[in-house]
Amino acid sequence: MISPTGSVAKRKDDGTLRVRSRLGKYRIERRLAEGGFAYVYQALDTVEGVRVALKMPHQSIVTPSMLEMFQREARLVAKLDHPNILPIKDANFIDGRFVIASRLGEQSLQDRMRKRIAFESALEMVLQIVSAAAYAHSQRIIHCDIKPDNLLFVNGRLQLADFGIARVAQKTIKGSGSGTVGYMAPEQAMGKPSAKSDVFSLGLLTYKIITGHLPEWPFEWPFQGAANLRRKAHPDLIAIIRKSLEVRPSKRYKDANEMLSALQKVRRKALLFHRRHRTPAA
Fold first, then answer.
1. Vertex 168: Cα angle to 165 and 171 (nearest 5)
2. What is the CATH number of the domain that holds 250?
């Protein structure tokens, strides 16, 4: 890897990139995250003058199949055109590394949830997230890792990122058993994910955004924070959340499109209910 001065920009012993190193037209500014398969860096696109997020697989575990997975991710997301899905700016081999560049979000939903979220804002966030998943499902793509860290605010709008473990169905929707434990459906943890698994993750995320509590195994109602949910949410909205969080997949919505349709039908009454019943702390 060559620096702007022509010298070799050094990597750290663990294979990560040093701050101020150059990778093609990108100048590394800091490491944002590290997952099971990849590092994510903040970098400056020195040609366009904008900051981006660069995702690249760990050099120590790169195999042809691993690179194929990342290339598949790039092809998948490149085909997805939705305001709540983070688009890819570039996907290419640079200095021997496969790099996926996307726009840098202002903050993640995980960061946003550290502060209280008003009910009206929470409901709008949920609708945006479910809309993104619904569009992906309509394209026969499941995400398999819907969680706050994979949702970024870009110009005030939530966008779903990281389709790295999504799978395109040939005849039926299939996926991998990967995911994040806290937001994973029970059957996905056993290696049997489907669109209904994304629905379960969406239900967990919805409950967390509205109540501040994340339901845990064995997912028996009432969850922690249920009293708070009843104070804030119309019974029809609660019914949608409960259906999305059924342990048995056959009892859930078949996909995010069904869940989105149900949410859109109760949106107005949910807002009116909350305005009539809210308290200063709601």
1. 140
2. 1.10.510.10
Angstrom CA distances, 181 to 163, 207, 222, 241, 253, stand at 17, 16, 21, 19, 21
Catalytic residue among 145, 162, 198, 255: 145
What CATH number corresponds to the domain at position 83?
Answer: 3.30.200.20
Report the alpha-carbon distance of residue 199 to residue 126 in Å, rounded. Answer: 12
Instruction: State which H helix or E strand residue 121 sits in.
Output: helix 119-138
Q: Are 210 and 245 in contact (CB under 8 A)?
A: no
- Per the annotation, the verdict on 145 as an active-site residue is yes
Q: Which domain holds residue 262?
A: 107-277
The token pair that represents 254 in the structure block: 């078949």
Give tens-digit pLDDT for 59-87.
776 677 767 777 777 787 788 999 999 98
